[in-house]
Design goal:
The chain is an alpha/beta fold. The chain folds into two domains: about 1-130, Ribonuclease H-like superfamily/Ribonuclease H (Nucleotidyltransferase, domain 5); about 155-355, Rossmann fold, CATH 3.40.50.1240. Helix content is about 40%, strand content about 20%. The protein contains twelve helices and eleven strands. The strands form two sheets. It has a six-stranded mixed β-sheet, sandwiched between helices. Strands 3-2-1-4-5 form a five-stranded mixed β-sheet, sandwiched between helices. Strand 1 (about 1-10) and strand 2 form a beta hairpin. Helix 1 packs parallel to helix 3 (about 85-100), helix 8 (about 250-255) packs across helix 9 (about 255-265) and helix 10 packs across helix 11 (about 305-315). Residues about 135-145 have low confidence and may be disordered.
Length: about 350
């Protein structure tokens, strides 16, 4: 049998509800479950939908169950790939595991929200019924027309300031070079800009690539907003291997055929380096971990040109050509909002107004 489940919270935490539907392999509906949950978080509602769906499948005598949800967090945690840090979710996950243990086999699959419309409708109907009337978001809400639900994790994406390598536009991947004097000035200007933004509260998290140029830029921001710098390996720049330190022209002359292929195929890697496909997978994992750790918060992410482009590419659901068509200046600011239901909104790209 197939279990499709969903949950939502209007406020996160806020008035919440879940929906679940059990289908056979032909898609015929065998059971529906939905209920209002009072005021809880979006993640609690998602887990509640899963539990209700598994219970319904057990009542129907299922031996194998394919669970499909648009909650990346629930799917990854129930698959054992992500740790469950929140005590409340640990208890719900244990309840779900107990139910899953009644079947011969259970699989978990993430699906886009559009493919989970039945369970989503049931969850929203439960929330509406709980409120006693249809609940509508304000028409001015930016998430209204996108269909996004819940409070987003907002990432303020800041590229590091100038280094000696960037002056000559040289490939600068894992080489650990410091900021120049101008780079430090750029970092200070960006920090002042961020400190003056209403959406960034005092003490907000600043997460950076562990490379010196990113950490120096991040420290300027942390000093300005009263936060502290944390590092994440997933935010490292692409490893350009033997092209490190070369200009575009020099790399093309050194390995003309390979360099040409690299520009058109994200699976191709520089000699001794990392492909853009590998960077994508690494950054996607980092994105998921940061969204789980800082759910619903605004954080500053200080990184390099390729990881930031990749985060924007993921948010835009765009192809790899974006890497070559999008320009990001040194110390530029971009903003992406990542919603708990899988939706995203890009609010700003390559803003350098603070440098003028």
């Amino acid at each position: 049998m197939i279990v499709e489940a969903d949950g939502g919270s209007r406020g996160n935490p806020g008035p919440a509800g879940y929906g679940a539907v059990v289908k056979d392999q032909s898609g015929a509906v065998l059971a529906e479950r939905s209920e209002g949950l009072g005021v809880v978080s979006n993640n609690v509602a998602e887990y509640s939908g899963l539990i209700a769906g598994l219970a319904a499948a057990a009542e129907l005598g299922a031996s194998t169950v394919d669970v499909r949800m648009d909650s990346k967090l629930v799917v990854e945690q129930m698959s054992g790939r992500w740790k469950i840090k929140h005590a409340g979710l640990q208890a719900l996950a244990e309840q779900a595991r107990e139910l899953a243990g009644r079947f011969e086999h259970v699989s978990y699959e993430w699906i886009p929200r559009a493919q989970n419309s039945h369970a989503d409708r049931l969850a929203n109907e439960a929330m509406d019924a709980q409120a006693g009337k249809p609940a509508a978001a304000p028409t001015s809400s930016p998430a209204r027309w996108t269909g996004a639900r819940g409070n987003p994790t907002r990432m303020l994406l800041l590229r590091h300031g100038q280094t000696a390598m960037s002056i000559d536009r040289r490939y600068s991947g894992r080489g650990d070079v410091p900021l120049t004097d101008l780079g430090r000035q750029q970092a200070a200007a960006a920090a002042k800009r961020l400190a003056g933004m209403d959406l960034l509260r005092d003490g907000a998290a600043v997460v950076a690539s562990p490379l010196m140029r990113a950490k120096q830029t991040a420290q300027a921001v942390a000093d300005a907003i009263g936060g502290r710098v944390e590092t994440h390996q997933g935010l490292l720049e692409t490893d350009f291997g033997e092209w490190e330190g070369l200009t575009f022209k020099e790399a093309a002359e050194r390995d003309p055929e390979l360099h040409s292929k690299w520009l058109g195929d994200p699976s191709v890697r520089p000699p001794g380096g990392e492909s853009f496909d590998a960077t994508y997978k690494r950054v996607l994992k980092a994105r998921d971990e940061l969204v789980e750790q800082y759910a619903g918060q605004t954080i500053v992410v200080v990184s390099h040109v390729t990881p930031i482009k990749t985060l924007l590419r993921i948010a835009l659901d765009a192809g790899p050509s974006l890497l070559f068509r999008l320009h990001l200046d040194l110390a530029s600011l971009s903003i992406a909002e990542l919603y708990p239901d899988g939706n995203a909104s890009v609010r700003l790209v390559n803003d350098t107004g603070h440098l003028g």
